[in-house]
Amino acid sequence: MIKSLTVSHSFHLKLATVALAILGLSGCSGVISGAGPYKGAIESENTTYNLVEINANTIAPYMRSAARPMQASIAKPVAPSARLMPGDVLSILITDNAPEGSALFAPLSTGGTQLKTRINDQGKISLPYVGQPFVAGMTLSQVEALIVKQLKGMTTDVQTHVELVGDLSGSVLVAGAVKSPGRFSTLQGPLTLLDAVNQAGGPVMEPHLVNVTVRTGNQVQQFNYEDILAGNNMVLRPNSEVVLERARQRFVAMGAVGEPGLKDLPAQNTSLLDALSSVGGLREGSANPEGVFVFRMGEGDQAKPTVLRLDMRDPAAIFYARQVVIKPDDTIYVTNAAVHEWQKIISPVVQTMMVGRVAGIQ
Predict the structure, then answer these.
(1) Which of 60, 81, 247, 352 is most deeply buried (CB count within 10 A of its CB)?
(2) Which of 166, 182, 207 is the endpoint of a domain?
(3) Domain Polysaccharide export protein N-terminal spans what residues (predicted)?
(4) How far apart are CA 267 and CA 271, in angstroms?
C-alpha cells in the first residue's frame, strides 16, 4: 500500500512538473502554434517584413476598393472590311450586258454567271477569262474592281458582285478555358467579345477566375472576364484570337482554420472575412483569435513584405476583416491556442507515465 502511494505521489509530481514547464514555455514564446511560426515570433522586432496591427488608424491602405459600377454603354457591331486570306471561299457573280453573241458571261436578265472559287495557298484565285490574279489581303470591293479591270477590252458592259461564303479571314478563334473551343464565322455579322465567348459555350470557371487575352496580329489586350460582363465589351476584328485562361486568383490558408490549403478567391474583391468563411472559419476549440495574420509579398523590387495582424477578440475586428482586401498569393495564417498545444504535448506524456505507473504498481 505504501509503495502504491509513493508511485502515485511521484506520478502527480512529474505531471505537475511537465505542466509548469509547458506554462513557462508558453510565457516565453507567446502563443504556441504547431502549424507555423509562433505568434510571439511573428510579433517580435525584425528587418524582414513590416508588421501592421490592423485598427481604425492603420486599415486605410489595406481596404478593398469600391465595386466598379456597371457601364451603360454597349458595343455596337459595325461590319469591318475583311481582308482576304488563303483558304477563303468566294462566290462571284459576273453579268455581261454586251450585245448577244459577243457576251462572255450571262446577262443580268438571266441571272448572270455564278462562280465559286477558293483562294489557294499562294493567295490567288482562278476564273475564266480573268486568269489567276493575286487577291490575298484585298477587300471584297477591291476584288470586284480587279475582275472588272481584267475583263476590260474583252467585253463592253460587265458587272461583278463578290461575296465571302467560306471564311478564314473573317472568322474568330476562341480557345482555352471554354466549353466548346473553335473557330467562329463572322459571315452572319461582326462578333463582339461576348458573342464569341458565348458561341464557344462560355467559360468553364467563375467569371472572376478567368482572364481573357485578345490578339489581333498587331495588338494584344487582356481583360478579366468579370470586367467584360460589367460592360467592357468590344467588337472583334476579323481573324482575331481569343484565349481564356485561369486567372491566378488564389490564396493559401494555414494553421487553425477549418479547411487549410491552396484556395480560389471567392470573388474578385475578396475581403479577409469572406476568405476566412470560404475555408470554414477559425477552428473551434483550437484557434487563437488573437493570432490571425495575413502574409503579403512586397510589390516592387525594393518593397518589404507586409504582415497584417487582427485580434478577432476585439468586436471591431469583424468590421475590419470585412474591409481588408485579400490579394492573390496572400497567405492567411491562424495560430493555435496555447491550451490546444498543451493538450497535444501532455497527452502522450500522460499516457507514457500511466503505463509506467501501472508497471510500477505491478
Answers:
(1) 247
(2) 166
(3) 77-164
(4) 9
Q: Quick one: cell of 104?
A: 462572255
* CA 351/CA 362 separation, integer angstroms: 17
Q: Indicate whether 117 belongs to any domain.
A: yes
In tens, the pLDDT along 149-158 reads 998 888 778 8
CB atoms near residue 56 (< 10 Å): 9
DSSP 23-51: HHHHHHHSS--SSSS-HHHHHS--SSSEE
Q: Tell me the pLDDT tens digit for each residue of 258-287.
A: 999 999 999 888 999 999 999 999 988 788
Number of domains the chain is built from: 4
pTM of this prediction? 0.60
Q: Which residues contact 34 (CB under 8 A, 6 or more apart)?
A: 336, 341, 344
* Type of residue at 280: G
DSSP for residue 155 = B
Which residues contact residue 81 at a Cβ distance below 8 angstroms, ignoring those fewer than 6 apart?
Answer: 139, 140, 141
